[in-house]
Structure formats: C-alpha cells, structure tokens
Specification:
Helix 3 packs across helix 4 and helix 5 runs parallel beside helix 6. It contains 10 helices and 12 strands. It is an alpha/beta fold. The radius of gyration is 21 Å and the shape is globular.
Length: 336
Amino acid sequence: MSFNNGPLIRVEDLVMHFPITRGVFRRQVGAIRAVDGVSLEIEQGETLGLVGESGCGKTTLGRTILQLYEPTSGHVYFEDTDLTQLKPEPLRQKRKRLQMIFQDPYASLNPRMTVREIIGDPMLAFGMASGKEIDARVSELLDLVKLDQKYAGRYPHEFSGGQRQRIGVARALALNPSFIICDEPISALDVSIQAQVVNLLEDLQEELALTYLFIAHDLSMVRHISDRVAVMYLGVIVELSDRNDVYINPLHPYTQALLSSIPVADPEYYVDHQRIVLKGDVPSPANPPSGCRFRTRCPIAGDECAEVEPELREISPGHFVACIKVPGKEVDTQDT
C-alpha cells in the first residue's frame, strides 16, 4: 500500500506512569512505568503492527494515544494537532476520527443494548444522525462488515465471537474515523475466524482509506497485515522497521527471541533452526533495570549495558534498533 501523505499520528516521548500508593493518606511511593518514552510515527493509510510480551505496555500505549489515559508527559499529534493540549470538548470532537476495536468481543458490547443501539449510540451522542437516519446508517454498516441487516434488533448474547467482533468493527466505523487502534482484535477468536476478521479489516482499510495501529501477539498475523512492525519491551520500543526487514533480518536480541518462537510447519526447518530461550522473567515495570531494560535476559549483554540506556537509532534506512551492541550509524539530528 502506498502512503505518501505524511504521518497521521506522531508520538513524541510519550510517558504513562501509574502511581503506586500506600497508607491511609494514599501517598505515592512509586510508579508503574507502563509506557516510558515512546516516539513513533504512523503514516496515513498504513498499518503499524505493535508486538511484545504480555505486560510490556502495548495496550496502555494505544489507550494513551487516544487520550483514554491522560499521559504523564509527552505529546501525541493527530494531523499536527497536539491531543495532549486540547481541552475536553475539542478533544471529544477529535475523537470522532480516532476509534478503537477492543480485544474481548464478549466484554466490549453492552448486553442490554441491541445491535442497532450499540452501533447507533455514537452517532446519537455526536448529533450526526437520529431516527431513520440511524437505521439507514446501521444497515449500511452491517452490510460493510458482512452481517445481515435483520440482526439489528438482536442482542450480543445471540451472536458468536466472530460476529460480535464484526459488530465492534461496525461501531468503530460509525463516526467515519481516520485512525483505528486494533487492540488484539483476533486473540479471543477461534483460529478459523481470525483470518476472516483480518481480511475484513484489510478490505475496510482499502475501501475507507483507514490507518491502523494493530496490536497483537500473533507474529505471523502481524507480518501479514502490517506495513511496518514495532517491537515493544517493558515500556519502550526496541526495534522498528519494515515488516519484511524485521522478520528476515531481526537485529535486536529480543526480536530474535520472539521470532524464534514462531512455530513452522516444516520439520526440515528445525534442522538448522535454533530456538532462543530467554532466561528469567520480565522485570517489574515498577523497578526496571538500569541501562538497557532487556539486559537481565539478554544473551549478549555486557557490563556496559547496565550503564548506558540505548536510544532508538537508525541502523540502516528505515530500520531502527535500541541496542548498543548492534553496529550502525548514529542518526544525524541536523538532517531532520
């Protein structure tokens, strides 16, 4: 897909810390550093895949970009408008074009509302339609996500998981958004349904000129749907590049370990394939290691890794890695 119109989303040094409090007076004694200085851009019309272990901050990053969480610091620009500086009403109006598809289709739909009410409620809240206009728009959206219009009067419990997620997609499209965060939209679905939902998202992107941030655990699916891939570990981005470059030539030790865990249905592949097994557990985001956060599990870490916090630097054109052990050129900030 071609995306030459510049970044739609620009994130600069985004930080999201959740306070840890104790005592009767709830004094803050620490913080969960869920997102700790993330910078990235998402071009118009592209899909940026975001991968990493559970608890690394992927969902928190997505929700903070949408300002569902008020960031501790940093900036999020949508079409050159800094969302972090907007007052409540202007931010609410911007949210019409910033939507989210949630992970769990069983928990994200109100069981007391019909499909018509679920999809039509955003239009009613923003005054975009009413009465028969909502009925017509709901029917149009159901057609768009390949569901029968007669389902509009039914309740969520009458649908399968895949159908519920399609309803969630229709709800996200109700306000004609430009940018959608897909927060693991297929992880709760059967394998036989996952491909259908991903193909639907691709078709909608092509038809409606949408931009996605696609958060997932399934590395194979991320490669299929994404234009670029960002790898996240303990609140920071450790590698960012074109999808094929990340999968064919992973440079960060953590990315290499992640990709080595992908099962391949070819016995001969494992003759020369070495599985990288990481030792230990992910450190606590309340007390991350000094220097490189991955050093406590990294097979190539040295003493200097505890002293230097690696920056995300451009190793080759478009390929960024946060590791002092990976040779490459330093980014010249005067060129930007």
